[in-house]
Specification:
Number of domains of chain B: 6
Distance between the termini of chain A: 55 Å
CATH architecture of chain A: 2-Layer Sandwich
Structural class of chain B: alpha+beta
Strand order of the largest sheet of chain A: 1-2-8-11-10-9
CATH topology of the largest domain in chain B: FAD/NAD(P)-binding domain
Number of strands of chain B: 52
Shape of chain B: elongated
Distance between the termini of chain B: 96 Å
CATH topology of chain A: Gyrase A, domain 2
CATH class of the largest domain in chain B: Alpha Beta
CATH architecture of the largest domain in chain B: 3-Layer(bba) Sandwich
Radius of gyration of chain B: 38 Å
Low-confidence stretches of chain B: none
Strand content of chain B: 25-35%
CATH superfamily of the largest domain in chain B: FAD/NAD(P)-binding domain
CATH class of chain A: Alpha Beta
Helix content of chain B: 10-25%
Mean pLDDT of chain A: 96
Order of helices and strands of chain A: EEEHEEEHEEHEEEH
CATH superfamily of chain A: Probable tRNA modification gtpase trme, domain 1
Number of helices of chain B: 26
Oligomer: heterodimer
Number of helices of chain A: 4
Chain lengths: 188, 997
């Protein structure tokens, strides 16, 4: 009966089209890797398993469907297709064997949103105390969205926002409220 | 009569008429009107009643300093009290009602207070607290409560929505008059990120009204080109209708944008609160004109001179055919000239100074306006509107020289810079003798983190009042906030001769006049009140404010403060700067609660944490209980049963069949590393390092004082990995506690932690049929032999990736199964389907509580309250005697915690089978030093046990375990008492036979 079970994201890919498009996406594979970043084997292990190097402080590296984000001095966030998580954990564990590391699946502990459109910045400017116009290319920003913890980064098409799964509904409520037509921060 | 003029009005659009009501009376105004302008255009000079004496009050000002024009705006779910008519933009269909009147504005009964004014002196409230004591409760309090308050509090849920937004800039300019525009232009040209805020819907402030010319063109034209230049700059953001409300540390500013106040119901947010972080703040907030203190200065029709000018020039509103101007400066002559140019009569200009020979007085004389110096108003005559003024010598005591009939009085006592934003964060003021005002002391500004000036005052707000100085000063401020920018534009306006401070009119006014000379219109404070306060010993301006109510309430004394403290200084025979000002606190003008709450209301008032099965519970009769920010089902109701019945049904079904509990909220923290075992041995009172892989152990965590903090089952996952379960409310706290010790104390220990609470849905399958249910799901061997009590196993259960823990919090055969959260709902439904034939039912947190209480298991937060140690709870077995140390060990050895005479956990069984009220106290013989009954214990958990058919309880009792069989007395609230016998706290299955099958 295993083939019948389909993992579902926190909100079943809910969406809202306001003055920006809000989409809850996923499920997405996410792995927390706790490791001191001066561990010699780390960059090689990441390159071998993820095809990406060690990101600089407060940066996220992306190649195709895989990303590595810097979450703290001893914590990385690995993003990859959901189905590849188990194999990736095994591969990283093997590649870092003998090192003091923690590789843990957090795919289901998170909710992920896309905020897209020309006015995507205006949605997040209502929720996150972040100077979004000064966000550097490839910057991963840990912040809050109103009352909950969140992380965000930007690409050409918009923003990705990650929060905790239990508050996915709250996050969707915030994003919906903030993207309602008529509430544009800089109306034409 | 005030009325609309046939021509003019720079801000109104006569092609767009708006209909509105005031006190249910239909009136007409134009697009661009403020509500004040529209009311005056309809001859509505009377707009409210004063707070204490219910005296008739009319519009005094034209801006946010207005003390009288406060209305209940809108109706029902859009009712807003205390809305200022001077800052409310007129829209079609607006409804307003005056405040503080009964039964009507025109005929108000409260006005008798006016005739009893001598019995309502300064400090009236405080004096009512004195003897006889009964008088406060029965006489004064009802009177004060009835008469206190201005607007009506809304009763309906607010129909509008609100939001907040964050902004960042190098230079924030607050105030969109010519000073703010020039400062923003300078800063904008330097390339700095600039944000410019203007509280009204118009740029340019009062320069266009005052006939200022800039670089040879009228101010209006300069404003237009400057705004266009600013709009063309990508680095400049302009926001109108956005009031800089408060300045806080590190360049943090709150600003309230009135997005849709003037377009209610158009779907936009009503207000938006901007939370701005600015490198430098320029306060270009202008100045406020001061009233003059003469008898009858509060009668409708007496207005500030500049406000009269605003109404004539901006809105083409005449305050009346004949306006007497009274002043101590040249600026007010502009009003006389504006009135004259509009074809209205100015019977006389009364100038308190001995001479008036400046350019403006000369111009007035040339126009044929009568100018009298050393003159004052002895008294304004009239009731609900001005009828005439009695004139006297300013130097004298009020002997009437002449009476002149008029409809309005335009007064000017000079100008006070708006120093609020400068002062909010500690900017200091200096007293300027020449202009008789406090202005920012540039040498003592509010400071940034690096010691530089956080706020730069610009233009009139900096005391640079004449237009030429204003613009030059603003240019300088813009440069100071960015970089040098060359020549400032030149503003030209008529030269003004020095003003002369006048704090009372006439200077020798006797008490009869002083008692009618108002300082604070909104709070009914007169010159005589402040003088009385001074006589009664109120020397500090802050104390005088509270005692007299000078400068309180919605306008915070924007008109009255300087006049009031000048009167106080005079009464104390001090200099004004020695007396000083009251403290300026944010917000500059009131900010509605909606804006402060922002998006946080309704569904998103607070983050609501939902488990993966939340929606299923909701659809199946869950009665919710908040647990931290989680919602957990308290019970699931079926049919019309009560919650109590639901709980009993759920308990019995667990005991007899099988129940399902959503345990997803339980904290789950992974601890891994070579030092993880040692770390957990320090954190828990027991030994976790020796736990074999595949097994579980119950553990207690204490804080360093020894008090019990959290509990839960720990599972050994592999050689250097453990999984720690915490209480539902404790997950984040315990994870932070772990990181605190790892990062701050044991930083050299090799341990990683990860809070994976939300990664898993967790389902407790509990009851004699639990194993049958799991076997039906299939895929894992969950037999007693393969998976005995206190062990765990990984596997595929019914096709789900599962980790099955054989643990029990109910005393029944019990499994807790963790599955990835994304499959949690599917697993829950699979369990219900598989368990249908075995009588499965979900159960909630209350059944969980009853089940654990029947077994005598403690609950963190019930049996513990931060003062309880594990030894108090009979949990000594979970404390390792062999370990050298653990967090809390030292604390538990201290004499008070090691005392054998502590209150300790026991079971309590009522003699009559009833349920003891939760939290009930067991009394002991005698009384304590406070005359209260001595106590010897308290109930920590109390339930009706459906299993046993009687009340059961646990409690902490003095030497409880040594007193088995004794009967204690628990008085009940409301009389009577319950008797209960001390028993073992395990009421059900003492041998543990049921869980061990």
């Amino acid at each position: 009966m295993s083939e019948l079970i389909t993992p579902i994201s926190a909100l079943g890919n809910a969406r809202y089209d306001g003055f920006a498009a809000i989409r809850e996406i996923g499920p997405t594979g996410m792995i927390t890797l706790r490791c001191k970043q001066d561990v010699a084997a780390l960059p090689g292990a990441l390159q071998a398993c993820m095809g990406l190097g060690l990101p600089e402080k407060r940066r996220i590296l992306t190649e195709g469907q895989r990303s590595i984000g810097w979450m703290g001095p001893d914590e990385l966030l690995l993003i990859l297709p959901y189905a590849e998580v188990a194999a990736m954990i095994a591969a990283l564990t093997e590649a870092l064997k003998g090192e003091h590391v923690l590789v843990v699946d957090v795919s289901d502990a998170r909710a992920m949103f896309r905020i897209e459109g020309e006015r995507a910045t205006e949605v997040l400017a209502k929720l996150c105390p972040v100077d979004l116009s000064n966000l550097a290319p490839g910057e991963l920003r840990r912040t809050r969205a109103a009352q909950v913890a969140a992380a965000l980064w930007q690409d050409e098409a918009g923003f990705t926002l990650v929060g905790f799964r239990s508050v996915a509904g709250y996050l969707m409520g915030l994003l919906t409220h903030s993207a309602m037509p008529g509430s544009e921060l800089f109306p034409a | 009569m005030s009325a609309r003029l046939a021509k003019g009005g720079r801000l109104i659009d006569r092609s767009k008429a708006h209909r509105f009501t005031f006190n249910c009376k239909w009136m007409r105004g134009f697009e661009g009107d403020t509500l004040s302008a529209a009311l005056l255009a309809n001859d509505q000079m009377l707009v409210g009643r004063s707070f204490k004496y219910h005296r008739p009050r009319g519009i005094v000002a034209s801006g946010p300093e207005e003390p009288n024009g406060l209305v209940n705006l809108g109706k029902g779910d859009r009712l807003e009290p205390n809305q200022r008519t001077t800052t409310t933009e007129l829209f079609d269909g607006l409804t307003a009602e005056s405040q503080n009147h009964w039964p009507s504005l025109e005929n108000d009964i409260g006005v008798v207070n006016n005739y009893a004014a001598r019995f309502l002196p300064a400090g009236f409230y405080y004096k009512t607290f004195l003897q006889p004591r009964a008088a406060w409760k029965h006489v004064f309090e009802p009177i004060v409560r009835h008469s206190a308050g201005l607007g009506k509090a809304p009763k309906d849920r607010d129909a509008d929505r609100y939001e907040q937004a964050y902004a960042f800039c190098d230079v924030l300019v607050i105030g969109g008059g010519v000073a703010g525009l020039q400062a923003a232009l300078v800063a904008g040209r330097s390339g700095a990120r600039v944000m410019l805020l203007e509280q009204t819907g118009h740029w340019g402030g009062r320069a266009p009204v005052d006939g200022v010319e800039i670089d040879g063109q009228p101010a209006d034209a300069w404003v237009k080109t400057t705004v266009q230049a600013l709009e063309a700059m990508e680095n400049v953001t302009l926001r109108k209708r956005c009031m800089g409300a408060g300045v806080y540390d590190h360049g943090y500013v709150l600003a309230d944008e009135k997005v849709a106040d003037h377009t209610p119901g158009d779907g936009r947010p009503k207000h938006r609160l901007w939370r701005i972080r600015a490198g430098r703040i320029i306060a270009a907030t202008g100045a406020i004109e001061r009233p003059l203190s003469f008898a009858g200065n509060d009668i409708p029709g007496v207005m500030l001179a500049a406000a009269v000018r605003d109404y004539v020039v901006n809105f083409a509103v005449s305050p009346g055919d004949r306006t007497v101007v009274v002043t101590n400066n040249d600026d007010a002559y502009r009003t006389a000239i504006a009135l004259h140019q509009a074809g209205l009569s100015v019977p006389v200009i009364l100038d308190a100074r001995l001479t008036a020979t400046g350019a403006l007085p000369e111009q007035a004389r040339k126009l044929g306006i009568r100018v009298e110096t050393n003159r004052a108003i002895a008294m304004v005559q009239g009731g609900k509107r001005v009828k005439r003024v009695s004139i006297c010598a300013q130097a004298g005591e009020g002997a009437v020289l002449e009476e002149i009939a008029c409809e309005a009085v335009a007064m000017s006592g000079g100008w006070s810079p708006v120093v609020h934003l400068w002062s909010h964060c500690g900017g200091k003021l200096i007293w300027d003798e020449a202009t008789a005002c406090f202005r920012p002391d540039a040498a003592r500004p509010p400071l940034n983190h690096d010691g530089s000036a956080m706020v730069i005052a610009a233009g009139a707000a900096n005391g640079a009042l004449p237009a030429a100085d204003t613009l030059a000063d603003a240019h300088r401020a813009g440069e100071a906030a960015s970089k040098p920018a060359g020549e400032a534009p030149k503003a030209t306006a008529a030269e003004e001769a020095p003003m002369e401070a006048v704090w009372l009119m006439p200077q020798g006014a006797p008490v009869k006049l002083r008692a009618k000379a108002w300082l604070d219109y909104q709070n009914d404070v007169k010159v005589s009140d402040v003088q009385l306060a001074a006589r009664e010993g109120y020397e500090s301006v802050e104390h005088t404010k509270r005692y007299t109510t000078l400068g309180m309430a919605t306008d915070q004394g924007k008109l009255s403060n300087i006049n009031g403290l000048a009167v106080l200084a005079d009464a104390l025979n001090e200099h004004i700067p020695q007396v000083g000002t009251t403290t300026f606190r944010p917000p500059y003008t009131p900010v509605t609660f909606g804006a402060l709450a922002g998006e946080a209301r309704g569904e998103i008032f607070q983050p609501l944490r939902r488990t993966p099965m939340h929606d299923w519970h909701d659809a199946h009769g869950a009665y919710w209980e908040p647990v931290g920010l989680w919602r957990r089902p308290y019970c699931y109701t079926q049919g019309g049963e009560s919650h109590e019945k639901s709980v009993h049904r759920e308990v019995l079904n667990v005991r007899n069949n099988v129940g399902l509990l959503d345990a997803s909220t339980l904290g789950k923290i992974i601890v891994k590393g070579p030092d993880a075992g040692r770390f957990l041995d320090m954190l828990y009172t027991g030994v976790m390092s020796t736990l074999p892989i595949g097994k579980c152990r119950y553990g207690l965590m204490c804080n360093e004082n020894g008090f019990l903090s959290d509990d839960g089952v720990v599972a050994r996952i592999d050689e250097d990995t453990w999984l720690c379960h915490t209480t539902s409310g404790g997950a984040d706290r315990i994870h932070a506690h772990m990181e605190d010790w790892l990062q701050c104390e044991w930083w050299d220990w090799q341990v990683w932690t990860a809070n994976v609470t939300e990664q898993y849905a967790q389902v407790a399958v509990v009851g004699p049929n639990a194993r049958k249910l799991l076997e039906k799901l299939g895929g894992m061997d969950v037999s007693k032999e393969t998976l005995p009590f206190m062990q765990w196993a990984d596997g595929m259960l019914g096709g789900f990736r599962a980790r099955v823990y054989r643990i029990s919090f109910s005393g029944e055969l019990s499994y807790e199964i963790a599955i990835p959260a994304s499959e949690g709902r599917a697993f829950w439904e699979a369990c219900l389907a598989a368990g249908a034939e075995f009588g499965v039912m979900p159960y909630g947190t209350e059944a969980l509580h009853v089940l654990r209480a029947e077994k005598g298991f403690i609950m963190i937060g019930d049996e513990t309250d931060g003062t309880v140690i594990p030894q108090d709870l009979g949990l000594g077995w979970a404390i390792s005697k062999k370990k050298a140390d653990y967090l809390g060990k030292r604390g538990q050895e201290r004499s008070f915690l090691a005392d054998p005479d502590r209150w300790k956990l026991v079971g309590l069984e009522t003699l009559d089978g009833s349920v003891i009220p939760d939290g009930a106290i067991a009394v002991a013989e005698g009384k304590n030093a406070n005359g209260q009954r001595n106590t010897q214990g308290r109930v920590t958990s109390s339930y009706h046990s459906p299993t046993l058919g009687k009340g059961i309880a646990m409690g902490l009792v003095l030497r409880g375990p040594d007193r088995m069989g004794e009967v204690l007395d628990f008085p009940k609230i409301g009389g009577g008492s319950v008797k209960a016998r001390i028993v073992d706290q395990v009421f059900y299955d003492k041998e543990g036979a049921k869980q061990n099958v």
